[in-house]
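Sorry to interrupt, but I need a hand with the structure work. Please put the record directly below this note.
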Amino acid sequence: MASYESTVEVGADPEAAFDYLSDLSNLPEWDPSVRSAKPSGEPVTGVGARFDVEIGFYGRGIQTTHEIIEAERPSRLVVAVDGKITGRIELRIAPSGEGSTIDYRATATMKGLAKLLDKGLKLAFEGIGENASAGMRKQLT
């Protein structure tokens, strides 16, 4: 299993940061590994919101479903990832000066025959996480 953790300082207040991050259609704006994110039903925000997400991995597109499984506005968001890649994204948002601090944790593993690529995922995950953290900082500052 690959994992990544970081703390990101952003200029947006916790409510604005939470609202932006909990709208999963914004994923391609802040996570460069995400090619597209489209709602796959109702609701489109909050617990139960599901999105069809395409992740770019070594030049290939991998289809996943991202579902918000926990949401505590404005402090916590948990997203389950399912598909050939499974995992979890957890964001904890706290006030920090005029902005926010976001603790970003992500885990991922491959399943099925794609599990053969799991070592490649572990190797790439640090860079994927760093790029997502930088994108989050850019979009929320």
The beta strands are 2-10, 34-39, 50-57, 60-72, 76-83, 85-96, 99-110. The CA atoms of residues 15 and 74 lie 5 Å apart.
